[in-house]
From TrEMBL:
GO terms for molecular function: fructose-bisphosphate aldolase activity. The active site is at Y150 (proton donor), K181 (schiff-base intermediate with dihydroxyacetone-p). InterPro entries: Aldolase_TIM, DeoC/FbaB/LacD_aldolase, DeoC/FbaB_aldolase, FbaB-like. Transmembrane segments: none annotated. Pfam families: DeoC. Gene3D superfamilies: Aldolase class I (3.20.20.70). This is Fructose-bisphosphate aldolase. It comes from the Bacteria.
């Protein structure tokens, strides 16, 4: 259950989870900083319109990208502002650097903010410290915080190992996140145990570039059955020949199930 009961936080969380207990379908579109321009026909505003029309609940954008979208798009779609980033051109692509603040996100009209943490990376200390700093600002300004928690680093053999995933989720919860996105194990029983023990609602991450769409949809469906609060899938959508159709398929997985509610 969420620990903060401030009015502003409840309003923003209510916008994120306005479908009640049917689950949260979040589409991260923050990839351009890290991996280069999004591969999608049409402009960003048109893509966002398709997401809203076909069942997405929210979208993750960097501050500059958000300004290229018509404000009316966010009447029925929540805006989550990404606060840190890195590029694949960097010496250490697992590092993450602050690129925006909670205050900037509020000026954009964001409903929530997001911070990416690569636990076990060489720069884990700085990333966790940044998450904690953002959590304090979110508490001050009554803004929900999504933590994107991954286990990645030179000594990590399997970042989806159940004990590592559970630990990463615990870090996010202990430092003040309201929602957590992570890559869950393939084993449904292990996933169910992790989700049952998680202190915050968990969104299942979509997967690596080039993943088979049917396989991703199958994993997302399994995660929802295991108790996930929703899914966060970006590449599968913006690389699809028909992003709207892909969102409809994801919405069927998320909104036609009875998962753990976004509280």
């Amino acid at each position: 259950m969420y620990t903060s009961e401030s009015f502003g936080r409840r309003v923003r969380l209510g916008h994120l989870g306005r479908r009640g207990g049917s689950g949260l379908l979040l589409i991260p579109l923050d990839h351009a900083v890290g991996a280069g321009p999004l591969r999608s026909d049409g402009d960003l505003d048109t893509l966002i319109g398709q997401l809203a029309e076909h069942g997405a609940d929210g979208v993750v954008l960097h501050k500059g990208a958000a300004r290229r979208v018509r404000p009316a798009r966010f009447r029925d779609l929540s805006l989550v502002c990404q606060l840190n980033a890195s590029t694949r051109m960097a010496h250490d692509p697992d590092a993450k650097y602050p690129v925006a603040t909670v205050e900037e996100a509020l000026r954009l009209g964001a409903h929530a903010v997001s911070v990416h943490v690569n636990a076990a990376s060489r720069t884990e200390a700085a990333q966790i410290a940044h998450l904690a700093t953002v959590a304090e600002a979110c508490e001050r300004w009554s803004v929900p915080l999504l933590a994107m928690m991954y286990v990645r680093g030179p000594a990590v053999r399997d970042g989806r190992a159940p004990d590592l995933v559970a630990h990463a989720l615990a870090v996010a919860a202990e430092l003040g996140a309201d929602l957590v996105k992570t890559a869950l194990p393939d084993d449904p029983a292990a996933t169910a145990r992790i989700l049952a023990g998680a202190a915050t609602p968990v969104l299942a991450a979509g997967g690596d570039p080039g993943s088979d769409p049917d396989a991703v949809l199958g994993r997302m469906s399994a995660a929802m059955r295991a108790g996930a609060a929703g899914v966060a899938v970006g590449r599968l959508v913006f690389t699809a020949a028909d992003p709207g159709a892909m969102v409809r398929r994801l919405a069927a997985v998320v909104h036609d199930r009875t998962p753990a509610a976004v509280r």
